[in-house]
Amino acid sequence: MDQPIAILTGGSLPGIPWEERPRNDPHHAPLWRYSGNPVIGRNPVPGVARVFNSAVVPWGEGFIGVLRGEQVDGVPQIYLGRSDDGVAWTIEPNPIPFTDEDGRPFMPGYAYDPRMVKVEDTYYILWCTDFYGAAIGVAKTRDFQTFTRVENPFLPFNRNAVLFPRKIEGTYRLLSRPSDSGHTPFGDIFLSESPDMVYWGRHRHVMGKGTAWWESVKIGGGAAPIETSEGWLMFYHGVASTCNGFVYSIGGAILDRDEPNRVKYRCRNFLLTPEEAYEERGFVPNVCFPCATLQDVDTGRIALYYGAADTCVCLAFTTVQLAVEYIKAHSALTPADAEPGVR
Ligand code: BMA
User: Fold this and answer.
1) Are 42 and 26 in contact (CB under 8 A)?
2) What is the pLDDT of residues 193-235, one digit of tens each?
3) The ligand 1 atom nearest the CA atom of 179
4) Is 180 in the pocket of ligand 1 (CB under 6 A)?
């Protein structure tokens, strides 16, 4: 038995959604799907055709989610959802009413793939916004009543912004994936630093697209990294190209705790790939897109939220021990992974 691995992000979460691994699980990977998937399906509220690629945090006795709602005109916006158990969701009928720093309405032209990360006493929502093309939008809230947009961190084009859940050596750290304005056929994960969530710099390359085929087109940040005694456990998406389009799978890596631009381990195998009907069939077939985790420091349990087929929200489970051991056992760094990421 390897050393016990501790989760250091968050606290006790006895109400974490959870299901034991099925005894007849045919998969050798450490993630297993919730038997009740999907947890949010089509047409959940009037005016919203699909909810997917969404993020969840603990809030009060339950959970709160920022949900990508694909509206019936095809434009995505972010909706707020509330849940007692992280599985059954009540969704607000209107998109989140973002304001500027003076309290005036300031809605994005579109908003998709939200992540939500608590740093100190503030919840930051990050999404792909319209800023003369696809770019990263950020808002903050402390009470889920007012949602204040702050400056967009980067120039276009960029997507998949994922904030670390604590400052490292006094600065905020943000992963992102520079892109083009379309269905980007390339993409590596970079890390940037900020003293104040306004000015970003000291950019570092973290990980490139993989040599393994399932992630050989591009990769992008997924859930906020989970701090563990082994390093930052990161669930991300990796994309393959086929004769019928892209396939999105979920990968795993572990970054250095003090210098998260350094990759310690990177799993050569995907952790989850489209297999179930709800992942293979939908608005965009063959997509598993991770956006958030919940974790319980007492049991080491991790619940991962992912979007399936750009159509619904699903859950998968693992433990920190299983995930870290599997990633380490199947790690194969590319030459670029081992670099500090400066040129
Ligand atoms: C990406 C984003 C995601 C989506 C994925 C697969 O470029 O648009 O929201 O899940 O493509 O369609």
Assistant:
1) no
2) 999 999 999 999 999 998 999 999 999 999 999 999 999 999 9
3) 7
4) no
